[in-house]
Amino acid sequence: MATLSVALTIIVQAAMISALYALIAIGFTLIFGVGGVLNLAHGATITMGAFSAYYAGQLGLGIPGAILASVAIPALFAGLLYLGMVKRLEEEPIMVMITTLVVSVVIEQAIVVFEGTTNRSLPQLIEGQFSIAGATFQNLLGVMFVVSWIIIGLLFLFVNYTKTGKGILAVSMSHKGASLVGIKSSRINLITWIIAGAFAGIAGLFLGSWLTASFAMGQAQLVLSFSIVVVGGIGSIRGSVIGAYLIGFLEIATTNLVSSSLQGLAPLVVLVVVLLVKPEGLFGREFAE
């Protein structure tokens, strides 16, 4: 009976947390899939989302203000980062990686200067617990699961059934082909960065509310994002969702059955195995110029 309870806990907890992992990874893979560059400031944008919610709470704006701040500020930051720096370096992916890495370090150090290294508590989005077959879980995890899947579902609808979404698909397939039919790659890239920033902010809000907010919280999420998109195939949204669940289940099983100190090891192990066996990932594809 105890074994069944542990198994149920692992399955439900992994399903809920993996949904958030998918949301984190989709923002990362969207930018590469459309623009062909890696955003190493993705983790710092997650951190920005968490601290935006924290400051909104400190200003007495309540939960609605915290939610709005955690989405709007990272989305605006991502858009400005693209327009101010990345757009000028799009033809040089290595420079984009270096630039976004430097930006990430600057953000983290700025938080250290203003807030120190002490973890900060965010406004509690929702309190209480719920039970499934005797196993108890936080309501926050349930909300995190539902909201993450609603956002992922809306993204799929947006990409497949709107003019802008089809523009995103076109640019991801071929920048030259998209330009020939009148699609402006720079506009599509800007939209993609804003979406990715908003996703990162939402992830930061949930992570900060579930755990706490810290200046370095985005580092682990950047490694997680990279691991997931490599497993799923860089540039593949479907691959990111599947990769998130694969890594999420392995991580939760490892922490519950072996040791909680191994939490960050699962993504790295899967990453190494995939790079050795199937470097293009589960659903990787080549992108046209």
UniProtKB/TrEMBL annotation:
One of the GO BP terms on file: amino acid transport
Pfam families assigned to the protein according to its UniProt record, in alphabetical order: BPD_transp_2
Main subcellular location: membrane
GO MF annotation list: transmembrane transporter activity
Compartment list: Cell membrane
Bilayer disposition of the protein: Multi-pass membrane protein
Keyword Cell membrane belongs to the record: yes
Coiled-coil spans in chain: none
Membrane spanning residue stretches: 6-30, 37-57, 63-83, 95-114, 140-159, 190-211, 223-250, 257-277
Listed GO CC annotations: plasma membrane
Family listed: Belongs to the binding-protein-dependent transport system permease family. LivHM subfamily.
Protein name, per record: Branched-chain amino acid ABC transporter permease
